[in-house]
Design a protein that fits this description.
- There is one protein chain.
- This protein is α/β, with parallel strands linked by helices.
- Helix content is about 50%, strand content about 10%.
- Strands 7-6-5-11-12 form a five-stranded parallel β-sheet, sandwiched between helices. It has a four-stranded antiparallel β-sheet with strand order 1-2-4-3. The protein has a three-stranded antiparallel β-sheet with strand order 8-9-10.
- Strand 5, helix 5 and strand 6 form a beta-alpha-beta unit.
- Helix 2 crosses helix 3, helix 4 crosses helix 20 and helix 17 packs parallel to helix 20.
- Pfam families: Arg_tRNA_synt_N, DALR_1, tRNA-synt_1d.
Length: about 575
């Protein structure tokens, strides 16, 4: 049930009726016709731009069309008032019976209320986290993990077939550095004194890994040249790090559907196959790039390279895919990885990257456009930095990690629910301040507490009702007569609940799960507002002397709780049944 979709359908029917009468010409495009909440709530429950959209192609004044539409819409019993405003906007007020019927619809659908078929089962690959397997996940990875996971859940809720994917960057030089760092810890486990040179990983998290390597191979690699142990230690260290990363993700409630190894692209013909695909399209050539901006001519050595003609697909410059020595650039395996995604039949790709990958967006979009002949869109979401604060000061260090705050540090400090919700209170491309004290503060200023408290308040009402012998099962509440729900505060809360299906589709379409968190805070505010008004206006209290009246009040509150539960489920947060 989506009231905005229903009323839009009613508007389209009115347009068709006017066309049948000859008041409007046939063949008008109506895709841009919208029905949404008015900017000013005092103007009505919904507003449509239909007259403004149709005026020019119809050759009529917007206000004339709006007045004709208003007359048609007023014939429907759901429309209490259709009022023309300004140059031709049409404001609608719905009959109270529409809002009175809403709680029952929510309770019958449960947490499926708001679920959409917008995605039509299209296959979407959401790649997120993809941290280098060289150490524990830090707070920046945490935000990317939460965002990607919530986005995947949001898209699934909106009707897409979603695959959550992690790309293991285990094919680059950083994994060799990891192997050398683990080898030093391995020597330490054998009682040797070692020194961590610049560029190695000195974090204490590798002490246990070195000890595990010793337990597995004994002194086999002690005093041996690197050529004897590098490959085996690299594989061992990568497996250990990925085990640690999986544990960290599990702490956060993140579970991937698929892990893809970069290393699997090398020596298997996959990179060559991807480049051959681009070659067949005439997009690979030998050439010399212009000097980079800011480089003086004497500092620039022009050399012939193998290039991808990415400018034909929206990039600023063509990109090298093979070095002059015949080895692949870092871009080549990324092309091959996305070629693999396209080959797996995904209809849409979403990559969640750190903010430092901003310069990578155009080239990767160009590659996917070329590989899929423009069929598969790629959306790259950049995750801005997180600043941590504790006791009013910026918090930067983690002894175990050596140089950064880990995901585990954050989750152990405030819990996974708080971590996830706070990480979603800002848009992904905006920086975020995470204050440990505020994150656990029980106040209106803490959004996760405020939303959880709203759900817990409803649960408290349900418990008290049960104690009073009132049947508050969803089945019973869905059958209650709500015709007595006429107070503006109650109707206003019902209007807010009605927005939920629309919010789901808007957030899913824009790939913006933060909009769910923000809207849930607004819904919680409305619930708390109604609760507080009950202190001064007893008729608004959820528990009344009459059991039937109590049920009618509780039905609305329970509908709010159902929607909060659905929204928190998308965000990966557990609804609270009581606050302590």
């Amino acid at each position: 049930m989506n009231l905005f979709t229903d009323i839009r359908a009613l508007v389209l029917q009115a347009i068709e009726a006017l066309q049948a009468e000859g008041a409007l010409p046939e063949g008008l495009a109506t895709a841009a016709v919208t029905v949404e909440p008015p900017r000013d709530a005092s103007h009505g429950d919904m507003a449509t731009n239909a007259a403004m959209v149709l005026a020019k192609p119809a050759g009529k004044k917007p206000r004339d069309i709006a007045e004709a539409l208003a007359a048609k819409l007023a014939e429907d019993p759901r429309i209490a008032l259709a009022e023309v405003a300004g140059p031709g906007f049409l404001n609608l007020r719905l009959d109270s019976s529409v809002w009175q019927a809403l709680p029952a619809a929510v309770l019958k659908a449960g947490t499926d209320y708001g679920r959409s078929d917008m995605g039509q089962g299209l296959k979407v690959n959401v790649e997120y986290v993809s941290a280098n397997p060289t150490g524990p996940m830090h707070v920046g990875h945490t935000r990317g993990a939460v965002f990607g996971d919530a986005l995947a859940s949001l898209l699934a809720y909106a009707g897409y077939d979603v695959t959550r994917e992690y790309y293991i960057n285990d094919g680059g030089a950083q994994v060799d550095v990891l192997a050398r760092s683990v080898y030093l810890r391995y020597l330490e486990a054998h009682g040797r004194t070692v020194e961590f040179e610049a560029g190695t990983y000195p974090g204490e998290y590798l002490i246990e890994v070195g000890a595990k390597l010793k337990a597995q191979v004994g002194d086999k690699f002690v005093d041996q040249p690197e050529s004897e142990w590098l490959e085996q230690v690299r594989e061992f260290a990568t497996d250990e790090m990925m085990g640690m990363i999986r544990e960290d993700l599990a702490l956060l409630g993140v579970k991937m559907d698929h892990f893809f190894s970069e290393k699997s692209l090398y020596g298997t013909g996959k990179i060559e196959a991807a480049i051959e695909s681009l070659t067949e399209k005439g997009l690979i050539y030998r050439g010399v790039l212009e000097p980079p901006k800011g480089k003086k001519p004497e500092d620039w050595e022009p050399r012939e390279q193998t290039l991808f003609k990415s400018t034909e697909h929206g990039d600023d410059v063509d990109r090298p895919i093979m070095k002059s020595d015949g080895s692949w650039t870092y871009f080549a395996p990324d092309i091959a990885y996305h070629y693999d995604k396209v080959s797996r039949g995904f209809d849409m790709l979403i990559d969640v990257f750190g903010a430092d990958h901003g310069g990578y967006v155009k080239r990767m979009k160009a590659a996917v456009s070329a590989l899929s002949d423009g069929r598969v869109p790629l959306d790259i979401k950049l995750i801005q930095l997180v600043k941590l604060f504790k006791n009013g000061e910026e918090f930067k260090m983690s002894k175990r990690a050596g140089t950064f705050v880990t995901l585990r540090d954050v989750v152990e400090e405030v819990g996974p629910d708080v971590t996830r919700f706070v990480m979603l209170t800002r848009k992904n491309d905006a920086s975020l301040d995470f204050d440990f004290a505020k994150a656990v503060e029980q106040s209106r200023e803490n959004p996760v507490f405020y939303v959880q408290y709203a759900h817990a308040r409803v649960c408290s009402v349900l418990r008290k009702a049960v104690e009073a012998g009132i049947d508050v099962s969803d089945e019973a509440l869905a059958g209650v007569d709500l015709s007595g729900m006429t107070h503006e505060a109650e109707l206003s809360l019902a209007r807010k609940v009605a927005e939920w299906p629309r919010i789901v589709e808007i957030a899913a379409k824009g790939h913006e799960p933060h909009k769910v968190a923000i809207w849930l805070n607004e819904l919680a505010s409305d619930l708390h507002g109604l609760w507080n008004r009950g202190h001064d206006e007893p008729e608004l209290r959820f528990l009344q002397d009459d059991a039937a009246v109590s049920q009618s009040k509780i039905a609305l509150a329970r509908a709010v709780a159902v929607v909060i539960s659905a929204g928190l489920g998308i965000l990966g947060v557990t609804p609270a049944e009581e606050m302590r």
